[in-house]
């Protein structure tokens, strides 16, 4: 079977790597190669950054008013809406995500563009209420320049939209580096950007591996901001790269998000929320609710209901409408899940469901897996699996639940299940996480911000502040006095 061929977009030109080298992308549902992408070297990356830098300085881009930039983003949103099915199918083929999930994500994508388009002409400066009457000072928010966006494989389009939309709204230009495991949809997105009339060089895409293509991009001297989503180990490389160019950084990393079930919760709803949190997307989600803290009075009831519901999950072809769990996105990720399960068993965690691959001929599938743990210090309670593996532990008091929830290197999201309104607010206040969901889980909106505490990263994406992450504040001082400058050796 011949492989589908993709090219990169550099300065508006569709191109192969200078070396001619390529790499294959594998379909997780079959394990077979389906597409081929250019393997960009440092030289290709340099071309892309130079193109983005030229576009940033160009009269064509600079002369667009913020309102005009907003209109371009709105047009891109419309084009995504018109191409939902194609993009959803492509992403499902490339990363093995359920078609019902990719359709849902892609059909919401335009909202990120529309919302952020509206922010483009609301990036305002301030006048300062100075303590010097002979001076006027005001601030301007300026774009940074070239943004490097490093995208992982789990939700490529969504994680790109929340970077591209604010970066362009604020007037920057961008070089996208998709994951080597899921590059296809970002290339399609750039084609739509071209159709929307976004000037050449404003959005570029280079494909390739992390340590070569990714590192060349994040350490490039003309990159002014790096927007990264991925794992903590890679984030450390990216931080080191930014020591070369002093680029601003935003990091959205992983999590070990707790779901806390209190005895007064609607337990049917809680069980559904837990399933959504850990088994949707086969657990390959940064906000996966992978640590279940359940009050001892309802512990058996919750765990039995959870095992019962999870055992009915339909695992299968991600392109089939009836499937509820698709494969792991990569063979490596499957191996990671298997090694976590092995270690949990060796350390005495009690397996209640799954713990193995299902009986299928091909594809990187893994069964929904539930372990009971005896201590929050257990490896499985502390380390991110990024797969369909839930770790459950009982608690007795709210204080104990809070202590366990916060005893984690991560702080991305948390779920709280209770009907007690005071408790809901109290626990929401005291859990150290960037996102708190009460009696629900995995809800996103263009208005809501995404980002974590501690090892889950820093900076916020999506929401009203997202555009400010792509700006630098400048302060302008005007001398209002008609007197000559005073003593030059004294700071005013
Ligand atoms: O991601 P990586 P991986 C977590 C999850 C997973 C682990 C590793 O726990 O098991 O990370 O996943 C690029 N310089 N998340 O290895 O390596 C890479 O090419 C610059 C959480 O797949 O973080 C890809 O484009 N870039 C997560 C991107 O970084 C480099 C989503 C992410 O890859 C690079 C995915 C380098 N030296 C995994 N090395 C989330 N927060 O949603 C790699 N890259």
Structure write-up:
The protein is an alpha/beta fold and 492 residues long. The chain has two domains: 4-253 and 456-475, Aldehyde Dehydrogenase, Chain A, domain 1, CATH 3.40.605; 258-438, Aldehyde Dehydrogenase, Chain A, domain 2. The chain contains 15 helices and 22 strands. The longest helix is centred in the N-terminal third of the chain and has 21 residues, at 99-119. The structure holds ligand TXE. Residues 150-154, 177, 179-180, 209-211, 214-215, 218, 229-231, 234, 237-238, 252-254, 286, 333, 336, 384, 386 line the site of ligand TXE.
Across the major sheet, the strand order is 14-15-16-13-12-18-19
Largest sheet: 7 strands, mixed
Task: Specify Rg, calculated over alpha carbons.
Answer: 24 Å
Which class of secondary structure composition applies to the elements?
A: alpha/beta
- Distance from N terminus to C terminus (CA atoms, Å) equals 74 Å
Average pLDDT figure: 97
From the coordinates shown, what is the CATH architecture of the largest domain?
A: 3-Layer(aba) Sandwich
Name of the CATH superfamily of the largest domain: Aldehyde Dehydrogenase, Chain A, domain 1
Helicity range of the residues? 25-40%
| CATH fold-level name of the largest domain | Aldehyde Dehydrogenase, Chain A, domain 1
CATH class of the largest domain: Alpha Beta
Strand content: 15-25%
Oligomer: single chain
Summed up, the domain count is 2
Anisotropy-based shape: globular
Count of beta strands = 22
Count of helical stretches: 15
Q: What are the low-pLDDT stretches, counting only 5+ consecutive residues below 50? A: none
């Amino acid at each position: 079977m011949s492989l589908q061929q993709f090219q990169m977009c550099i300065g508006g030109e569709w191109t192969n790597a200078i070396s001619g080298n390529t790499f294959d992308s594998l379909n997780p549902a079959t394990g077979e190669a389906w597409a081929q992408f250019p393997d960009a070297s440092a030289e290709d990356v340099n071309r892309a950054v130079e193109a983005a830098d030229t576009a940033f300085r160009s009269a064509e881009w600079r002369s667009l008013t913020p309102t005009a930039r907003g209109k371009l983003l709105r047009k891109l949103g419309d084009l995504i809406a018109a191409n939902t099915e194609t993009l959803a199918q492509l992403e499902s083929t490339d990363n093995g995500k359920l078609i019902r999930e990719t359709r849902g994500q892609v059909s919401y994508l335009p909202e990120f563009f529309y919302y952020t388009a509206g922010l483009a002409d609301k990036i305002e400066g301030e006048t300062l209420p100075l303590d010097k009457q002979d001076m006027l000072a005001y601030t301007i928010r300026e774009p940074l320049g070239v943004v490097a966006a490093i995208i992982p494989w789990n939700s490529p389009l969504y994680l790109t939209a929340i970077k591209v939309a604010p970066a362009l709204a604020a007037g920057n230009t961008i070089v996208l580096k998709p994951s080597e495991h899921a590059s296809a949809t970002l290339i399609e997105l750039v084609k739509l950007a071209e159709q929307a009339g976004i000037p050449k060089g404003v959005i570029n895409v280079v494909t390739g591996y992390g340590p070569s293509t990714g590192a060349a991009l994040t350490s490039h001297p003309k990159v002014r901001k790096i927007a990264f989503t991925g794992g903590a180990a890679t984030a450390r490389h990216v931080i080191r790269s930014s020591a070369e160019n002093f680029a601003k950084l935003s990091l959205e990393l992983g999590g070990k998000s707790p779901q806390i079930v209190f005895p007064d919760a609607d337990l049917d709803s809680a069980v559904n929320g837990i399933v959504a949190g850990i088994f949707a997307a086969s657990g390959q989600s940064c906000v996966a609710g992978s640590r279940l803290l359940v009050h001892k009075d309802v512990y058996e009831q919750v765990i039995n209901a959870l095992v019962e519901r999870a055992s009915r999950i339909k695992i299968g072809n991600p392109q089939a409408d009836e499937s509820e769990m698709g494969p792991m996105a990569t063979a490596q990720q499957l191996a990671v899940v298997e090694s976590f399960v092995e270690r949990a068993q060796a350390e005495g965690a009690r397996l209640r469901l799954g713990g193995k691959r299902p009986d299928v001929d091909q594809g990187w599938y893994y069964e929904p897996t539930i372990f009971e743990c005896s201590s929050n210090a257990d490896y499985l309670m502390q380390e991110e699996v990024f797969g369909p593996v839930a770790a459950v532990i009982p608690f007795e008091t709210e204080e104990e639940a809070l202590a366990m929830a916060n005893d984690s290197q991560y702080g991305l999201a948390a779920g709280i299940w209770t009907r007690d309104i005071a408790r809901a607010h109290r626990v929401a206040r005291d859990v150290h996480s960037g996102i708190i969901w009460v009696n629900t889980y995995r809800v996103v909106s263009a208005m809501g911000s995404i980002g974590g505490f501690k090892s889950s990263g820093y900076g916020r994406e999506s929401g009203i502040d997202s555009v400010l992450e792509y700006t630098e504040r400048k302060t302008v001082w005007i001398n209002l006095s008609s007197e000559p400058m005073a003593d030059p050796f004294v700071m005013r």
